[in-house]
Design a protein that fits this description.
It is built from 18 helices and 15 strands. It is α/β, with parallel strands linked by helices. Helix 2 crosses helix 3. It starts with 13 loop residues before the first strand and ends in a 10-residue tail after the last helix.
Length: 459
């Protein structure tokens, strides 16, 4: 079954039945997040240069990729310059940034984690501490387009977590081209700002240079080289998930409006890589046909029409299923970054999608609302990673720490278990490290020594 004008570049595969969709080799398989050998080798060379040469490498790479006349003194952006750049943003845009940050912060405040302490008697205790990492780095792309929303989504969770030092890197020229980007950085409360682009920014955050202080974790989107740098440095520095092309699945029944569904699919397809996934899963053949027609009608004349056409042709699909149960199965199989549920009773399905990154319920919850500051984070797992990964959150900027404080009596009461377990696993030195603390008592025996003497905190 096919839909739309066959000559139109916006036609997507239309499948009658999930079985046909699953069998089709063009079914919307993940584009994958892997890097080719060329990207891996080039990234490795950049990382090694930054490790060995520090600032000199950053300046040379900036001149090579971003600004031929890059001035080394401009590597770090001063507060005064940032404020000057931000002043070029209009009052309405600055107010918009403040309102958006406030909504994002209010949502993320609820994600705070509590520590706990277990007092187990005799002056002994166990603890679980939730602590902010010491420093976080945020990378913000700055090529043909700039993304103030990326600044807010990646910095607000770190700020709510209590990270005392948040650093941000963006390519040379980005702040100059976009006063709104500069205003977003200012509104975010970032502590350090650097003009560094690409893989070299990740390397600078990981290794540190004379001008760039190391951080404990780096987050933020980027091109294939940025993603590959995170992979290669993953043993040295914490990173976020390796985000791939954006994805949306719209799960709809006959009550959904075709023009709204099509608009949401087109919105996802315009991101730019051509590998975005935009899929409709519906119980209605009539809606399926109407959506395909709307895709053709709405896409033509769009500013990003070429990008949209490429994405829909490669990774777009309309899948007609027998009922909502089958629709849920298909959505769970895809495990999309975004899942919109546009059905008669979306709340009835709200808890059926553990494998989606973000679930948007009802006709008035488009992905764009989540992207631009409803509150939840728009940094989401892609490429099927939503099966096991989560949105960026306050927890990504916390480390957890366990604390054990035993007194003599507590250790004495459990020493037999500990020593026995150590010997079960063949570690006599482990058993010995417990037993040695009681050698004097053991040699005296119960008659000679009586009950063990209590340490100060146990009395």
């Amino acid at each position: 079954m096919s839909g739309g004008d066959p000559g139109s570049p916006f036609v997507v595969p239309l499948f009658e039945g999930a079985g046909a969709w699953r069998a089709d080799p063009r079914r919307v398989a993940s584009a994958g997040n892997g890097s080719g050998e060329g990207v891996r080798a080039a990234t490795a060379a950049i990382l090694e240069r930054v490790r060995r040469e520090g600032d000199a490498a950053l300046v040379d790479l900036a001149r090579r990729f971003d600004a031929p006349d890059f001035d080394p003194s401009r590597l770090r952006v001063s507060r005064e310059e940032l404020e000057e750049r931000a002043s070029g943003a209009g009052q309405e845009e600055q107010a918009l940034l403040r309102r958006t940050r406030s909504r994002i912060a209010a949502y993320h405040e609820r994600q705070r984690e509590t520590s706990f302490r277990m007092d187990i008697g005799n002056g002994s205790r166990l603890e679980w501490r939730s602590l902010p990492i010491a420093a976080a780095g945020v990378y913000v792309p700055g090529g043909a387009a700039v993304y103030p929303s990326t600044v807010l989504m990646n910095t607000v969770p770190a700020a709510v977590a209590g990270v005392p030092r948040i650093a941000l890197a963006t390519p040379p020229g980005a702040l100059e081209r976009s006063p709104v980007l500069a205003a977003a950085v200012l509104a975010a409360g970032v502590h350090e700002v650097y003009r560094i682009g690409g893989a070299q920014a990740i390397a600078a955050f990981a290794f540190g240079t004379a001008s760039v202080r190391r951080v404990n974790k780096v987050v933020g989107p980027g091109n294939a080289y940025v993603a590959e740098a995170k992979r290669q440095l993953g043993q040295l520095i914490g990173t976020d998930a390796f985000a791939g092309p954006s994805e949306v699945v719209v799960l709809a029944d006959e009550t959904a409006r075709a023009d709204w569904v099509a608009a949401d699919l087109l919105a996802q397809a315009e991101h730019g890589s051509g590998d975005e996934r935009a899929i409709l899963v519906t119980t209605s053949s009539e809606l399926a046909q109407a959506v395909v027609a709307e895709l053709v009608r709405q896409a033509e004349g769009q500013p990003n029409a070429e990008t949209i056409a490429r994405a829909l042709a490669r990774h777009g699909a309309v899948v007609v299923v027998g009922d909502l149960e089958e629709a849920v199965e298909v959505a769970e199989e895809i495990a999309p970054e975004h899942l919109e549920v546009m059905t008669r009773d979306p709340e009835a399905l709200a808890d059926r999608f553990p494998s989606a990154g973000a679930v948007l319920l009802g006709d008035h919850s488009p992905v764009a609302a989540g992207d631009y500051g409803a509150g939840p984070n728009h940094v989401l797992p892609t490429g099927g990673a939503a099966r096991f990964a989560s949105p960026l959150s306050v927890g990504d900027f916390l480390k957890r720490q366990s604390v054990l404080r035993y007194g003599e009596r507590t250790l004495a009461s459990l020493r037999e278990d500990f020593e026995r377990f150590a010997r079960v696993e063949g570690f006599e030195a482990h058993a010995r490290s417990v037993a040695i603390r009681f050698e004097a008592q053991d040699s005296r025996g119960p008659a000679a020594g009586g009950a063990p003497e209590l340490s100060t905190e146990e009395r």
